[in-house]
Amino acid sequence: MKKITLSGGFHNARRITLHVKDEKMSEGQYKRLDKHMCGVDRCICGWRGYDLEGIDRATFSEMVMNVSYPMQQKTWR
After folding, report:
1. Are 25 and 18 in contact (CB under 8 A)?
2. CB-side exposure of 27: number of CA atoms within 13 Å?
């Protein structure tokens, strides 16, 4: 289990901590993180400028894409 902490960003969000297994984020964790880091309907901030602890940015970005892209595809159909 890996502990990941994010904070700051475009909307200056408070700290949020996730515990991920095998560097895989669940849909529920992604939704919680997305709502916490932005939560503004139709915002295009992309969580820019956030502080990240516990994992490198490349691995975190890949982890987010692996869960968010399939979720977006479901809504396109």
Report:
1. yes
2. 5
